[in-house]
Amino acid sequence: MESQNITPTDPQNEDIIENKELNIWEALIPIIALVIMLFFNVYYVYGNEAIDGSNQFVLLMGAAVAAIVGFYNKVSYKQMMEEVAKNIKSTSSALIILLLVGSLAGTWLISGIIPTMIYYGLQILNPTIFLAACVIICAIISISTGSSWTTSATVGIALIGIGDTLGISLGMTAGAVISGAYFGDKMSPLSDTTNLAPAMAGGELFSHIKYMAYTTIPTIVITLLVFIVIGFSIDTSGTPEISEQLNAIDSAFNISPWLFIVPVLIIGLIIKKTPPVVALFIGTLLGAIAAIIAQPEIVTTVAGSDEFTFNSAYKGVMNAMTTKTSVQTSNEDLTKLFTSKGMVGMLNTIWLILCAMVFGGVMDAIGALARISKALLNLFDSVFGLFASTVVSCLALNITASDQYLAIVVPGRMYAKAYKDKGLAPENLSRTLEDSGTVTSVLIPWNTCGAYQSGVLGVPVVDYFFFAIFNWLSPFMTLLFAAFRIKIKQLAQN
Predict the structure, then answer these.
(1) Three-state SS for 339?
(2) 431-466: per-residue pLDDT in tens?
(3) How does DSSP assign 269-326, residue by residue?
């Protein structure tokens, strides 16, 4: 029998479940257990290999702990499974995107699209300004598309390749890519999170974007300055050998600027608000066609055939889409670089997301998420304390619920009245939700965003964490503005 003490509310088509029988200490038990288990699993047993499977099961164990707490507080198994199902359903689009990103990377490799980007990029991008250029390029693409995910899956992958060839740390390049991509995602009116935050806070979209610029512009400027300084200080050992690498790429692929037609078309589709799933699917097919036209020898080799026929062409592009593919070059480093894992390479990331959604679903079902947010709200009474509690709530939900949308939705609805009671305009809340919820999700390895970006770029979160300067600096910037009462908008007096 379902408990009568659990009541869902449904603004913005999202349920936040409150459980009157659950106290704060019981709500924290699953989180404490999860943190301890993850710490032991990563730091004492598996290290960087924890993402290959053990972390996924740890999340399920955390869900089991949450379920025990739920049973104790009269939450039925059925309720928990319903929330888990709802969580997993909400990620279905993201899971399809991940599979398509894997297949797109495969066809864009064997078609020569990614190698062509790297080939010309090596000649255009000066190593000294490369990292700052990565930030700017990804910011422009992400503002245009409204998607940090799509930016990383297309331009980001190519920039990672260029950076690796220049001898620049993969963590640095990934951090620059993510900084730019999340700046654009955060400021774009096409972004789902940019629309979600003001909706949760009770504000208006373009007022939210304008007000968000006060904290976001200084943060991205600082990020660019840091990357410029890094660019002048790092030793780019790859620079003297670029000619050798250019020759290796040119001999392995038929390099042509015509191959840029495919990524330009895909970016155009996304700017026209084509759904990412559709755009990536079309990009995969166009990559396959480009491979057959431009790189028939590579397609034949990938198919394991001796001659180019209809069957070998079909098998070659299908292998590239679905399984691990590698193109041999005269340069060992480039051979490692020109490797794609296809759709199968995304399965670990998908597995992680599914397990994270199980944990987040159970936590939501037992009322733990709502209880923790309320407790944080009660800790503070000042205006700065209200901002600080919002930041902490967003970070906590990104860590525990493993989903950036929950990190916006839950605190957004729980704090809206508190901001109003303090005489603060909703733009204060929506800005804080984005500064601390949207951008920090990518810094958590088991969060859907962290898992996605790490999987797509091929760089562990721990390697790019420090260099994702824009992302970890944003919550500090919003707290700085709150502490000194800079651009703290008041409610209009009637």
Answers:
(1) strand
(2) 999 999 999 999 998 888 898 899 889 899 999 999
(3) HHHTT--HHHHHHHHHHHHHHHHHHH-HHHHHHHTT-SS--HHHHHHHHHHHHHS-EE
Domain membership of residue 310 (yes or no) is yes
Report the alpha-carbon distance of residue 463 to residue 392 in Å, rounded. 24
Measured between alpha carbons, how far is 198 from 433 in angstroms, rounded to an integer?
9
Whether 115 and 167 share a structural domain: yes
The answer to whether residue 1 sits within a structural domain is no
Question: Is residue 145 domain-shared with residue 215, that is, in the same domain?
Answer: yes
Q: Are 412 and 433 in contact (CB under 8 A)?
A: yes
DSSP code string of 110-128? HTTHHHHHHHHHHHHS-GG
**Residue where a domain stops, chosen among 321, 344, 367:** 344
67 Cβ neighbours under 8 A, 6+ residues apart: 77, 80, 362, 366
Biggest CA-to-CA distance, the chain: 79
How does 157-166 read in b/e, with b if 16+ C-beta sit within 10 Å?
Answer: bbbbbbbbbb
Give the dihedral of Cα atoms 68, 74, 77, 82; nearest 10 deg.
-110
Per the domain annotation, does 280 fall within a domain?
yes
User: What domain range is 427 assigned to?
Assistant: 9-91+347-483
194 found inside a domain: yes
pLDDT of residue 422: 80
* In a shared domain, residues 279 and 147: yes
State which of 318, 344, 370 marks the end of a domain. 344
Write the CA distances from 365 to 81, 316, 397, integer angstroms. Answer: 8, 46, 14
Provide DSSP, 363-403: HHHTTHHHHHHHHHHHH--SHHHHHHHHHHHHHHHHHHT--
Q: Let me know whether 136 and 257 are in one domain.
A: yes
Structure tokens at 315: 């098998």
pTM: 0.69
Residue with tokens 């053990």: 54
Residue with tokens 């990565």: 134
CA 397, chain centre distance (Å): 15
Residues linked to residue 435 through DSSP beta bridges, in sequence order: none
Taking the CA atoms of 479, 427, 412 and 377 in sequence, report the sign of the dihedral they define: positive
Do 352 and 321 share a domain, yes or no?
Answer: no
Q: Do 122 and 247 have their domain in common?
A: yes
Contact 188, 143 (CB under 8 A): yes
- Tokens (6 digits) for 110: 């064997």
Q: Do 118 and 138 belong together in one domain?
A: yes
Tell me the pLDDT tens digit for each residue of 181-204: 999 889 887 677 888 788 778 888
Nearest to 115 by CA among 300, 296, 365, 291: 291
